[in-house]
Amino acid sequence: MPDVDRDRAWLLTVDGAPQSYVDLDAPTHLEFEYTRRLGHVLDTLAAPGRPLDVLHLGGGALTLPRYVAATRPGSHQDVVEADRGLLGLVAEHLPLPDGAAVALHAADARAWLEAAPADSADVLIADVFGGSRIPAHLTTLAYAREAERVLRPDGVYLANLADAAPFAFLRSQLATFAAVFAELALIAEPGVLRGRRFGNAVLVAAHRPLDTAALARLTAADAFPARVEHGAALREFTGGAAPVRDADAVASPEPPGGAFGIG
Predict the structure, then answer these.
(1) Spatial contact of 151 and 124, defined as CB atoms under 8 Å apart
(2) Are 206 and 181 within 8 A, CB to CB?
(3) N or C: which end of the chain has fewer CB within 10 A?
(4) What is the phi/psi pair of residue 184, to 5°?
(5) 223-254 tens-digit pLDDT
(6) Are 73 and 64 in contact (CB under 8 A)?
(7) Phi, psi dihedrals of residue 215, rounded to the nearest 5°
Protein backbone atom coordinates (compact mmCIF):
# COMPACT_ATOMS: atom_id res chain seq x y z
CA MET A 1 0.00 0.00 0.00
CA PRO A 2 1.35 3.48 -0.82
CA ASP A 3 2.10 5.96 1.95
CA VAL A 4 0.04 9.07 1.21
CA ASP A 5 2.52 11.23 3.16
CA ARG A 6 5.70 10.22 1.31
CA ASP A 7 6.19 9.89 -2.44
CA ARG A 8 7.36 6.42 -3.54
CA ALA A 9 7.03 4.99 -0.01
CA TRP A 10 5.24 1.70 0.51
CA LEU A 11 3.94 -0.48 3.35
CA LEU A 12 4.01 -4.25 2.82
CA THR A 13 1.53 -6.37 4.79
CA VAL A 14 1.46 -10.17 4.84
CA ASP A 15 -1.65 -11.95 6.11
CA GLY A 16 -2.86 -8.66 7.57
CA ALA A 17 0.32 -8.02 9.57
CA PRO A 18 2.52 -5.00 8.68
CA GLN A 19 5.86 -6.51 7.67
CA SER A 20 7.98 -3.91 5.89
CA TYR A 21 8.10 -0.25 4.98
CA VAL A 22 10.35 1.19 2.28
CA ASP A 23 10.88 4.62 0.78
CA LEU A 24 12.42 4.09 -2.64
CA ASP A 25 13.78 7.65 -2.65
CA ALA A 26 15.20 7.46 0.90
CA PRO A 27 16.61 3.97 1.58
CA THR A 28 18.08 5.10 4.91
CA HIS A 29 14.61 5.97 6.24
CA LEU A 30 13.62 3.21 8.69
CA GLU A 31 9.98 3.61 9.66
CA PHE A 32 9.43 0.68 12.02
CA GLU A 33 10.93 0.98 15.50
CA TYR A 34 12.59 -2.44 15.44
CA THR A 35 14.21 -1.76 12.06
CA ARG A 36 15.68 1.47 13.42
CA ARG A 37 17.17 -0.52 16.30
CA LEU A 38 18.65 -3.03 13.88
CA GLY A 39 20.00 -0.08 11.89
CA HIS A 40 21.62 1.34 15.02
CA VAL A 41 23.41 -1.96 15.61
CA LEU A 42 24.58 -2.06 12.00
CA ASP A 43 25.92 1.48 12.34
CA THR A 44 28.03 0.55 15.38
CA LEU A 45 29.56 -2.68 14.09
CA ALA A 46 32.31 -1.16 11.96
CA ALA A 47 33.72 2.16 10.84
CA PRO A 48 31.19 4.29 8.91
CA GLY A 49 30.98 3.30 5.26
CA ARG A 50 33.00 0.11 5.61
CA PRO A 51 31.51 -2.66 3.41
CA LEU A 52 30.16 -5.75 5.14
CA ASP A 53 29.11 -9.22 4.03
CA VAL A 54 25.56 -9.53 5.33
CA LEU A 55 23.21 -12.52 5.33
CA HIS A 56 19.52 -11.72 5.79
CA LEU A 57 17.18 -14.53 6.80
CA GLY A 58 13.76 -13.19 5.86
CA GLY A 59 13.29 -10.75 3.01
CA GLY A 60 10.12 -8.72 3.37
CA ALA A 61 10.42 -5.62 1.20
CA LEU A 62 14.24 -5.64 1.53
CA THR A 63 14.29 -2.66 3.87
CA LEU A 64 17.56 -3.47 5.62
CA PRO A 65 19.41 -4.65 2.48
CA ARG A 66 18.59 -1.24 0.98
CA TYR A 67 19.83 0.48 4.15
CA VAL A 68 23.14 -1.42 4.11
CA ALA A 69 23.64 -0.77 0.39
CA ALA A 70 23.14 2.97 0.99
CA THR A 71 25.20 3.32 4.18
CA ARG A 72 27.94 0.82 3.33
CA PRO A 73 28.48 0.85 -0.45
CA GLY A 74 30.31 -2.18 -1.75
CA SER A 75 28.72 -4.54 0.74
CA HIS A 76 27.77 -8.00 -0.51
CA GLN A 77 24.40 -9.23 0.73
CA ASP A 78 22.39 -12.43 0.48
CA VAL A 79 18.68 -12.48 1.24
CA VAL A 80 16.94 -15.79 1.96
CA GLU A 81 13.13 -15.75 1.76
CA ALA A 82 10.92 -18.85 1.70
CA ASP A 83 8.03 -17.07 -0.05
CA ARG A 84 9.01 -17.08 -3.72
CA GLY A 85 5.87 -15.12 -4.63
CA LEU A 86 6.78 -12.38 -2.17
CA LEU A 87 10.28 -12.11 -3.62
CA GLY A 88 8.82 -11.74 -7.11
CA LEU A 89 6.28 -9.15 -5.98
CA VAL A 90 8.93 -7.02 -4.28
CA ALA A 91 11.39 -7.32 -7.16
CA GLU A 92 8.68 -6.18 -9.61
CA HIS A 93 7.10 -3.33 -7.66
CA LEU A 94 9.88 -2.24 -5.28
CA PRO A 95 13.09 -2.82 -7.26
CA LEU A 96 16.49 -2.53 -5.65
CA PRO A 97 18.66 0.40 -6.71
CA ASP A 98 21.14 -0.14 -9.51
CA GLY A 99 24.49 -1.38 -8.27
CA ALA A 100 23.20 -2.93 -5.05
CA ALA A 101 25.05 -6.22 -4.64
CA VAL A 102 22.09 -8.10 -3.20
CA ALA A 103 21.44 -11.72 -4.18
CA LEU A 104 17.93 -13.09 -3.58
CA HIS A 105 17.37 -16.76 -2.73
CA ALA A 106 13.98 -18.48 -2.49
CA ALA A 107 14.66 -21.08 0.20
CA ASP A 108 13.95 -22.13 3.77
CA ALA A 109 16.13 -20.05 6.07
CA ARG A 110 17.55 -22.91 8.15
CA ALA A 111 18.13 -25.21 5.18
CA TRP A 112 20.01 -22.43 3.38
CA LEU A 113 22.00 -21.61 6.52
CA GLU A 114 23.04 -25.22 7.01
CA ALA A 115 24.40 -25.32 3.45
CA ALA A 116 26.16 -21.94 3.62
CA PRO A 117 29.97 -21.78 3.82
CA ALA A 118 31.60 -21.38 7.24
CA ASP A 119 33.10 -17.99 8.16
CA SER A 120 31.33 -16.30 5.24
CA ALA A 121 29.35 -13.45 6.87
CA ASP A 122 30.16 -10.41 8.97
CA VAL A 123 26.54 -10.01 10.02
CA LEU A 124 23.55 -12.35 10.09
CA ILE A 125 20.12 -10.71 10.47
CA ALA A 126 17.17 -12.99 11.26
CA ASP A 127 13.74 -11.45 10.69
CA VAL A 128 11.68 -14.48 9.75
CA PHE A 129 7.98 -14.71 10.48
CA GLY A 130 5.48 -17.27 9.27
CA GLY A 131 2.48 -14.96 9.38
CA SER A 132 3.06 -13.24 12.71
CA ARG A 133 5.12 -15.97 14.43
CA ILE A 134 8.78 -16.99 14.27
CA PRO A 135 8.97 -20.61 13.03
CA ALA A 136 10.02 -23.14 15.67
CA HIS A 137 12.99 -24.50 13.70
CA LEU A 138 14.63 -21.03 13.82
CA THR A 139 14.67 -20.90 17.63
CA THR A 140 16.90 -23.82 18.62
CA LEU A 141 20.40 -24.52 19.84
CA ALA A 142 21.23 -26.35 16.61
CA TYR A 143 20.11 -23.31 14.61
CA ALA A 144 22.19 -20.96 16.82
CA ARG A 145 25.25 -23.16 16.27
CA GLU A 146 24.74 -22.99 12.50
CA ALA A 147 24.53 -19.20 12.73
CA GLU A 148 27.80 -19.11 14.66
CA ARG A 149 29.45 -21.40 12.10
CA VAL A 150 28.51 -19.15 9.18
CA LEU A 151 29.63 -15.96 10.95
CA ARG A 152 33.26 -14.93 10.98
CA PRO A 153 35.00 -14.91 14.38
CA ASP A 154 34.17 -11.22 14.91
CA GLY A 155 30.73 -11.53 13.28
CA VAL A 156 27.48 -10.45 14.86
CA TYR A 157 24.06 -12.11 14.94
CA LEU A 158 20.91 -9.96 15.06
CA ALA A 159 17.33 -11.14 15.44
CA ASN A 160 13.93 -9.53 15.60
CA LEU A 161 11.98 -11.32 18.35
CA ALA A 162 8.52 -10.68 19.79
CA ASP A 163 6.98 -11.66 23.13
CA ALA A 164 5.14 -10.45 26.23
CA ALA A 165 5.28 -11.19 29.96
CA PRO A 166 6.09 -13.67 31.40
CA PHE A 167 8.59 -13.86 28.48
CA ALA A 168 8.94 -17.63 28.25
CA PHE A 169 9.86 -17.40 24.56
CA LEU A 170 12.22 -14.42 24.86
CA ARG A 171 14.03 -15.91 27.87
CA SER A 172 14.43 -19.23 26.07
CA GLN A 173 16.03 -17.42 23.13
CA LEU A 174 18.45 -15.60 25.41
CA ALA A 175 19.41 -18.89 27.06
CA THR A 176 19.83 -20.55 23.66
CA PHE A 177 22.16 -17.91 22.24
CA ALA A 178 24.04 -17.48 25.53
CA ALA A 179 24.98 -21.16 25.21
CA VAL A 180 26.69 -20.41 21.87
CA PHE A 181 27.89 -16.78 21.94
CA ALA A 182 30.03 -15.04 24.57
CA GLU A 183 28.32 -11.62 24.40
CA LEU A 184 24.60 -10.79 24.31
CA ALA A 185 22.53 -7.63 24.34
CA LEU A 186 18.80 -7.02 24.12
CA ILE A 187 17.15 -3.83 22.83
CA ALA A 188 13.48 -3.14 23.63
CA GLU A 189 11.13 -0.47 24.85
CA PRO A 190 10.99 -0.22 28.66
CA GLY A 191 7.23 -0.83 28.57
CA VAL A 192 7.76 -4.16 26.82
CA LEU A 193 10.50 -5.23 29.24
CA ARG A 194 8.28 -4.31 32.20
CA GLY A 195 5.57 -6.59 30.86
CA ARG A 196 3.07 -3.87 30.03
CA ARG A 197 2.49 -4.96 26.45
CA PHE A 198 3.45 -7.35 23.67
CA GLY A 199 6.29 -6.03 21.52
CA ASN A 200 9.50 -6.50 19.59
CA ALA A 201 12.94 -7.04 21.09
CA VAL A 202 16.19 -7.06 19.12
CA LEU A 203 18.70 -9.72 20.15
CA VAL A 204 22.40 -9.07 19.48
CA ALA A 205 24.92 -11.91 19.89
CA ALA A 206 28.67 -12.06 19.23
CA HIS A 207 31.99 -13.33 20.50
CA ARG A 208 33.44 -9.82 20.64
CA PRO A 209 32.49 -6.97 22.96
CA LEU A 210 29.45 -5.02 21.81
CA ASP A 211 29.41 -1.22 21.89
CA THR A 212 26.45 -1.11 24.26
CA ALA A 213 27.18 2.49 25.28
CA ALA A 214 26.84 3.71 21.69
CA LEU A 215 23.74 1.58 21.20
CA ALA A 216 22.20 2.99 24.37
CA ARG A 217 22.78 6.56 23.16
CA LEU A 218 21.29 5.88 19.73
CA THR A 219 18.23 3.98 20.94
CA ALA A 220 17.52 6.50 23.70
CA ALA A 221 17.37 9.27 21.11
CA ASP A 222 14.62 7.61 19.05
CA ALA A 223 11.07 8.96 18.99
CA PHE A 224 10.14 5.80 20.91
CA PRO A 225 13.19 5.29 23.15
CA ALA A 226 14.47 1.82 23.90
CA ARG A 227 16.69 0.34 26.57
CA VAL A 228 19.80 -1.80 26.02
CA GLU A 229 20.13 -4.67 28.48
CA HIS A 230 23.38 -6.63 28.78
CA GLY A 231 25.69 -8.25 31.31
CA ALA A 232 24.36 -9.09 34.76
CA ALA A 233 20.99 -7.42 34.17
CA LEU A 234 20.37 -9.53 31.09
CA ARG A 235 21.45 -12.72 32.86
CA GLU A 236 19.02 -11.88 35.66
CA PHE A 237 16.24 -11.33 33.12
CA THR A 238 17.02 -14.69 31.49
CA GLY A 239 16.73 -16.41 34.88
CA GLY A 240 16.63 -20.19 34.81
CA ALA A 241 15.48 -20.54 31.19
CA ALA A 242 17.01 -23.46 29.31
CA PRO A 243 18.32 -23.59 25.73
CA VAL A 244 15.78 -24.84 23.19
CA ARG A 245 16.34 -28.26 21.63
CA ASP A 246 14.89 -29.17 18.25
CA ALA A 247 12.59 -31.75 19.85
CA ASP A 248 11.10 -29.13 22.20
CA ALA A 249 10.93 -26.11 19.89
CA VAL A 250 7.76 -24.10 19.46
CA ALA A 251 6.96 -21.04 17.38
CA SER A 252 6.97 -17.62 19.02
CA PRO A 253 3.66 -16.64 20.64
CA GLU A 254 0.76 -15.32 18.61
CA PRO A 255 0.53 -11.55 19.08
CA PRO A 256 -2.71 -10.28 20.56
CA GLY A 257 -5.11 -8.47 18.26
CA GLY A 258 -3.89 -4.96 17.50
CA ALA A 259 -0.35 -5.57 18.77
CA PHE A 260 1.15 -4.52 15.44
CA GLY A 261 -1.67 -2.47 14.03
CA ILE A 262 -3.81 -5.45 13.02
CA GLY A 263 -7.40 -6.46 13.81
Answers:
(1) yes
(2) yes
(3) C
(4) -130, 150
(5) 899 999 999 999 999 999 999 999 999 999 99
(6) no
(7) -60, -40
